[in-house]
Amino acid sequence: MRRKRGQPIDGWLVIDKPSGMTSTQVVGRAKRLFDAQKVGHGGTLDPLATGLLPLAFGKATKTVPYIMDGTKVYQFTLKMGEARDSDDADGAVTGYSDVRPTDDQLRAALPALTGNIMQVPPVFSALKVAGERSYDMAREGRPPELPPRPARVDRFELVKRIDDDTAVFEVESGKGVYMRALARDVALACGTVGHITVLRRLRVGPFTEADAITLDKLTPNDDNPHASPELLRPVATALADIPALALTEDEAASLLHGRALSLVDLMGRIPQVDEDSPIRAMEGGRVLGLCRLEDGLLRPIRIL
Protein backbone atom coordinates (compact mmCIF):
# COMPACT_ATOMS: atom_id res chain seq x y z
CA MET A 1 0.00 0.00 0.00
CA ARG A 2 1.45 3.35 -1.05
CA ARG A 3 1.96 5.89 1.74
CA LYS A 4 0.06 9.16 1.43
CA ARG A 5 2.28 12.09 0.50
CA GLY A 6 2.86 14.65 3.23
CA GLN A 7 2.70 14.64 7.01
CA PRO A 8 -0.37 13.53 9.03
CA ILE A 9 -1.06 16.95 10.61
CA ASP A 10 -4.34 17.68 12.43
CA GLY A 11 -5.85 21.02 13.44
CA TRP A 12 -7.23 24.38 12.29
CA LEU A 13 -5.41 27.37 10.84
CA VAL A 14 -7.23 30.65 10.19
CA ILE A 15 -5.73 32.53 7.27
CA ASP A 16 -6.38 36.21 6.54
CA LYS A 17 -6.84 35.69 2.80
CA PRO A 18 -5.37 38.38 0.53
CA SER A 19 -7.35 39.76 -2.40
CA GLY A 20 -6.57 38.20 -5.77
CA MET A 21 -6.17 34.59 -4.58
CA THR A 22 -8.81 31.88 -4.80
CA SER A 23 -9.62 29.82 -1.71
CA THR A 24 -8.27 26.75 -3.52
CA GLN A 25 -4.94 28.50 -4.13
CA VAL A 26 -4.66 29.33 -0.42
CA VAL A 27 -5.35 25.67 0.48
CA GLY A 28 -2.72 24.49 -2.01
CA ARG A 29 -0.09 26.88 -0.68
CA ALA A 30 -0.77 25.96 2.95
CA LYS A 31 -0.63 22.25 2.08
CA ARG A 32 2.83 22.72 0.52
CA LEU A 33 4.13 24.94 3.32
CA PHE A 34 3.12 22.43 6.01
CA ASP A 35 3.88 19.37 3.86
CA ALA A 36 0.44 18.17 4.98
CA GLN A 37 -1.43 15.10 3.75
CA LYS A 38 -4.91 16.58 3.83
CA VAL A 39 -6.20 20.17 3.90
CA GLY A 40 -9.65 21.66 3.25
CA HIS A 41 -11.32 24.98 3.96
CA GLY A 42 -14.37 26.14 5.88
CA GLY A 43 -16.21 28.24 3.30
CA THR A 44 -15.14 29.69 -0.05
CA LEU A 45 -14.19 33.35 -0.40
CA ASP A 46 -14.34 35.10 -3.79
CA PRO A 47 -10.93 36.01 -5.29
CA LEU A 48 -11.69 39.73 -4.73
CA ALA A 49 -12.53 39.12 -1.05
CA THR A 50 -10.19 39.27 1.94
CA GLY A 51 -10.54 38.03 5.49
CA LEU A 52 -11.08 34.84 7.40
CA LEU A 53 -10.51 31.57 5.57
CA PRO A 54 -10.34 28.72 8.12
CA LEU A 55 -8.19 25.80 6.90
CA ALA A 56 -8.82 22.28 8.22
CA PHE A 57 -5.86 19.88 8.41
CA GLY A 58 -6.26 16.10 8.72
CA LYS A 59 -8.92 15.10 11.27
CA ALA A 60 -10.17 18.70 11.41
CA THR A 61 -11.77 18.13 7.99
CA LYS A 62 -14.41 16.06 9.85
CA THR A 63 -15.55 19.25 11.59
CA VAL A 64 -15.77 21.43 8.44
CA PRO A 65 -19.60 21.11 8.21
CA TYR A 66 -19.96 22.69 11.67
CA ILE A 67 -17.82 25.67 10.63
CA MET A 68 -19.85 25.99 7.42
CA ASP A 69 -23.06 26.05 9.48
CA GLY A 70 -21.70 28.69 11.86
CA THR A 71 -22.53 32.40 11.83
CA LYS A 72 -20.50 34.54 9.45
CA VAL A 73 -19.93 38.30 9.53
CA TYR A 74 -18.96 40.34 6.45
CA GLN A 75 -18.35 43.96 5.53
CA PHE A 76 -18.75 45.08 1.95
CA THR A 77 -18.54 48.31 0.00
CA LEU A 78 -21.34 48.91 -2.51
CA LYS A 79 -20.68 51.11 -5.53
CA MET A 80 -23.97 52.43 -6.90
CA GLY A 81 -24.75 53.46 -10.45
CA GLU A 82 -22.92 50.66 -12.24
CA ALA A 83 -24.00 47.02 -12.69
CA ARG A 84 -21.43 44.27 -13.35
CA ASP A 85 -22.09 40.75 -14.69
CA SER A 86 -20.30 39.21 -11.69
CA ASP A 87 -21.89 41.65 -9.19
CA ASP A 88 -18.40 42.69 -8.13
CA ALA A 89 -15.53 44.82 -9.45
CA ASP A 90 -13.97 41.88 -11.32
CA GLY A 91 -16.84 41.72 -13.81
CA ALA A 92 -17.79 43.54 -17.00
CA VAL A 93 -20.12 46.55 -16.88
CA THR A 94 -23.67 45.65 -17.92
CA GLY A 95 -25.64 48.79 -17.05
CA TYR A 96 -25.73 52.26 -15.55
CA SER A 97 -28.08 54.36 -13.43
CA ASP A 98 -28.03 58.02 -12.39
CA VAL A 99 -30.12 57.30 -9.27
CA ARG A 100 -28.29 57.74 -5.94
CA PRO A 101 -30.45 56.80 -2.94
CA THR A 102 -30.21 58.63 0.37
CA ASP A 103 -29.02 56.93 3.55
CA ASP A 104 -32.63 56.70 4.72
CA GLN A 105 -33.65 55.01 1.48
CA LEU A 106 -30.81 52.48 1.82
CA ARG A 107 -31.78 51.71 5.42
CA ALA A 108 -35.44 51.36 4.43
CA ALA A 109 -34.51 48.66 1.91
CA LEU A 110 -32.68 46.47 4.46
CA PRO A 111 -35.59 44.87 6.41
CA ALA A 112 -36.89 43.14 3.26
CA LEU A 113 -33.42 41.60 2.80
CA THR A 114 -33.16 40.45 6.44
CA GLY A 115 -34.43 37.25 8.02
CA ASN A 116 -35.37 34.17 6.00
CA ILE A 117 -35.30 35.40 2.42
CA MET A 118 -35.21 34.01 -1.11
CA GLN A 119 -32.05 35.04 -2.94
CA VAL A 120 -31.07 34.69 -6.61
CA PRO A 121 -27.36 33.70 -6.59
CA PRO A 122 -24.87 35.54 -8.83
CA VAL A 123 -24.36 33.79 -12.19
CA PHE A 124 -20.63 33.84 -11.41
CA SER A 125 -21.00 31.24 -8.65
CA ALA A 126 -19.96 27.61 -8.22
CA LEU A 127 -23.54 26.31 -8.35
CA LYS A 128 -24.11 23.48 -10.80
CA VAL A 129 -26.66 23.65 -13.61
CA ALA A 130 -27.18 20.38 -15.51
CA GLY A 131 -23.74 19.22 -14.39
CA GLU A 132 -21.92 22.45 -15.34
CA ARG A 133 -20.61 25.17 -13.04
CA SER A 134 -22.61 28.38 -13.37
CA TYR A 135 -19.43 30.50 -13.60
CA ASP A 136 -18.11 28.36 -16.48
CA MET A 137 -21.37 28.88 -18.38
CA ALA A 138 -21.29 32.64 -17.66
CA ARG A 139 -17.68 32.96 -18.87
CA GLU A 140 -18.66 31.23 -22.11
CA GLY A 141 -21.45 33.73 -22.68
CA ARG A 142 -24.20 31.32 -21.60
CA PRO A 143 -25.25 32.74 -18.20
CA PRO A 144 -27.90 30.42 -16.73
CA GLU A 145 -31.20 31.46 -15.16
CA LEU A 146 -30.64 30.60 -11.50
CA PRO A 147 -33.77 30.12 -9.38
CA PRO A 148 -34.09 31.86 -5.99
CA ARG A 149 -32.73 29.90 -3.02
CA PRO A 150 -33.54 30.16 0.69
CA ALA A 151 -31.03 32.26 2.64
CA ARG A 152 -30.87 33.51 6.23
CA VAL A 153 -29.64 37.03 6.98
CA ASP A 154 -29.58 37.77 10.71
CA ARG A 155 -28.33 41.37 10.53
CA PHE A 156 -27.89 43.85 7.68
CA GLU A 157 -26.69 47.35 8.59
CA LEU A 158 -25.51 50.47 6.82
CA VAL A 159 -22.18 51.22 8.51
CA LYS A 160 -21.20 54.44 6.73
CA ARG A 161 -21.71 56.44 3.55
CA ILE A 162 -18.39 57.27 1.95
CA ASP A 163 -19.78 59.48 -0.84
CA ASP A 164 -22.80 59.67 -3.17
CA ASP A 165 -21.67 56.55 -5.05
CA THR A 166 -20.43 54.32 -2.24
CA ALA A 167 -21.68 52.91 1.05
CA VAL A 168 -20.34 50.32 3.50
CA PHE A 169 -22.58 47.59 4.96
CA GLU A 170 -22.12 44.88 7.59
CA VAL A 171 -23.94 41.55 7.36
CA GLU A 172 -24.34 38.66 9.80
CA SER A 173 -25.65 35.55 8.08
CA GLY A 174 -25.92 31.80 7.91
CA LYS A 175 -24.33 29.60 5.26
CA GLY A 176 -24.93 29.95 1.54
CA VAL A 177 -25.68 33.70 1.52
CA TYR A 178 -24.05 35.60 -1.35
CA MET A 179 -22.85 39.07 -0.38
CA ARG A 180 -22.64 40.03 -4.07
CA ALA A 181 -26.34 39.23 -4.41
CA LEU A 182 -27.20 41.30 -1.31
CA ALA A 183 -25.28 44.26 -2.71
CA ARG A 184 -27.01 43.91 -6.08
CA ASP A 185 -30.45 43.58 -4.47
CA VAL A 186 -30.17 46.51 -2.05
CA ALA A 187 -29.24 48.74 -5.00
CA LEU A 188 -32.15 47.42 -7.10
CA ALA A 189 -34.55 47.92 -4.16
CA CYS A 190 -33.55 51.59 -4.14
CA GLY A 191 -34.16 52.05 -7.85
CA THR A 192 -30.54 51.93 -8.95
CA VAL A 193 -27.86 49.33 -9.79
CA GLY A 194 -24.65 48.47 -8.00
CA HIS A 195 -21.85 46.04 -7.31
CA ILE A 196 -19.32 45.17 -4.60
CA THR A 197 -15.88 46.80 -4.75
CA VAL A 198 -14.54 45.59 -1.38
CA LEU A 199 -15.56 42.46 0.56
CA ARG A 200 -14.08 41.25 3.84
CA ARG A 201 -15.11 38.34 6.07
CA LEU A 202 -14.70 39.23 9.76
CA ARG A 203 -15.97 36.07 11.45
CA VAL A 204 -16.64 32.40 10.72
CA GLY A 205 -18.29 30.40 13.53
CA PRO A 206 -16.00 30.65 16.57
CA PHE A 207 -13.14 32.23 14.60
CA THR A 208 -12.59 36.01 14.58
CA GLU A 209 -9.97 38.34 13.10
CA ALA A 210 -7.90 37.93 16.29
CA ASP A 211 -7.38 34.26 15.31
CA ALA A 212 -6.16 34.97 11.77
CA ILE A 213 -2.62 35.09 10.41
CA THR A 214 -1.35 36.10 6.99
CA LEU A 215 0.23 33.66 4.56
CA ASP A 216 3.63 35.34 4.85
CA LYS A 217 3.74 34.33 8.55
CA LEU A 218 3.98 30.70 7.36
CA THR A 219 7.22 31.26 5.47
CA PRO A 220 9.78 28.52 6.31
CA ASN A 221 13.33 29.41 7.36
CA ASP A 222 16.79 27.85 7.14
CA ASP A 223 16.22 25.84 10.34
CA ASN A 224 12.90 24.40 9.20
CA PRO A 225 11.95 23.86 5.55
CA HIS A 226 8.24 23.67 6.47
CA ALA A 227 5.80 25.80 8.45
CA SER A 228 5.46 24.77 12.10
CA PRO A 229 2.46 22.60 13.10
CA GLU A 230 2.51 24.55 16.39
CA LEU A 231 0.67 27.31 14.51
CA LEU A 232 -2.38 25.05 14.25
CA ARG A 233 -5.26 25.16 16.71
CA PRO A 234 -6.78 21.92 18.09
CA VAL A 235 -9.39 20.12 15.99
CA ALA A 236 -12.04 20.79 18.65
CA THR A 237 -11.58 24.58 18.32
CA ALA A 238 -14.11 24.52 15.49
CA LEU A 239 -16.77 23.22 17.87
CA ALA A 240 -16.31 25.89 20.55
CA ASP A 241 -19.70 27.53 20.00
CA ILE A 242 -21.65 24.24 20.05
CA PRO A 243 -23.37 23.61 23.44
CA ALA A 244 -21.40 21.22 25.64
CA LEU A 245 -22.44 18.24 27.78
CA ALA A 246 -20.13 16.88 30.49
CA LEU A 247 -19.90 13.07 30.67
CA THR A 248 -18.43 10.74 33.26
CA GLU A 249 -15.57 8.38 32.41
CA ASP A 250 -17.97 5.41 32.02
CA GLU A 251 -20.40 7.42 29.88
CA ALA A 252 -17.53 8.61 27.71
CA ALA A 253 -16.31 5.03 27.20
CA SER A 254 -19.79 3.94 26.10
CA LEU A 255 -20.11 6.84 23.69
CA LEU A 256 -16.69 6.17 22.17
CA HIS A 257 -17.85 2.61 21.44
CA GLY A 258 -20.79 4.04 19.50
CA ARG A 259 -23.43 3.34 22.17
CA ALA A 260 -26.27 5.79 22.81
CA LEU A 261 -26.84 7.07 26.37
CA SER A 262 -30.20 7.36 28.13
CA LEU A 263 -31.25 10.96 28.71
CA VAL A 264 -32.69 9.90 32.08
CA ASP A 265 -29.12 9.39 33.34
CA LEU A 266 -28.11 12.79 32.01
CA MET A 267 -30.93 14.86 33.54
CA GLY A 268 -29.76 18.22 34.85
CA ARG A 269 -26.75 18.28 32.53
CA ILE A 270 -28.38 18.44 29.10
CA PRO A 271 -27.96 21.86 27.44
CA GLN A 272 -30.92 23.67 25.90
CA VAL A 273 -30.71 23.08 22.15
CA ASP A 274 -33.04 23.13 19.19
CA GLU A 275 -34.22 19.84 17.74
CA ASP A 276 -31.56 18.33 15.43
CA SER A 277 -28.88 20.72 16.78
CA PRO A 278 -25.56 19.06 17.68
CA ILE A 279 -24.23 18.76 21.22
CA ARG A 280 -20.52 18.67 22.04
CA ALA A 281 -19.77 15.67 24.29
CA MET A 282 -16.97 16.39 26.79
CA GLU A 283 -14.98 14.35 29.29
CA GLY A 284 -13.21 16.96 31.39
CA GLY A 285 -11.44 19.23 28.90
CA ARG A 286 -11.45 16.61 26.16
CA VAL A 287 -13.90 16.78 23.25
CA LEU A 288 -15.19 13.28 22.48
CA GLY A 289 -17.39 14.14 19.53
CA LEU A 290 -20.79 15.41 18.51
CA CYS A 291 -24.15 13.95 19.50
CA ARG A 292 -27.85 14.54 18.98
CA LEU A 293 -30.89 14.13 21.23
CA GLU A 294 -33.20 11.55 19.68
CA ASP A 295 -35.99 9.31 21.04
CA GLY A 296 -34.94 9.76 24.68
CA LEU A 297 -31.31 8.99 23.88
CA LEU A 298 -28.05 10.85 23.33
CA ARG A 299 -26.80 9.41 20.05
CA PRO A 300 -23.24 9.91 18.72
CA ILE A 301 -23.14 11.41 15.22
CA ARG A 302 -19.43 12.16 14.88
CA ILE A 303 -16.70 10.78 17.15
CA LEU A 304 -13.39 12.65 17.08
UniProtKB/TrEMBL annotation:
Q: What is its EC number?
A: 5.4.99.25
UniProtKB keywords: Isomerase, tRNA processing
List residues of the tRNA pseudouridylate synthase B C-terminal domain. Answer: 180-239
Q: Which residues form the active site?
A: 46 (nucleophile)
Entry-linked Pfam families = TruB_C_2, TruB_N
Task: Please tell me whether the keyword Isomerase is annotated for this protein.
Answer: yes
Alphabetical list of CDD domains matching this protein: PseudoU_synth_EcTruB (cd02573)
Q: Which reactions is this enzyme annotated as catalysing? A: uridine(55) in tRNA = pseudouridine(55) in tRNA
Q: GO:BP terms for this protein?
A: mRNA pseudouridine synthesis; tRNA pseudouridine synthesis
A single MF term (Gene Ontology): tRNA pseudouridine(55) synthase activity
Q: Which purpose does this protein serve, as stated in its record?
A: Responsible for synthesis of pseudouridine from uracil-55 in the psi GC loop of transfer RNAs.
Q: What is this protein called?
A: tRNA pseudouridine synthase B
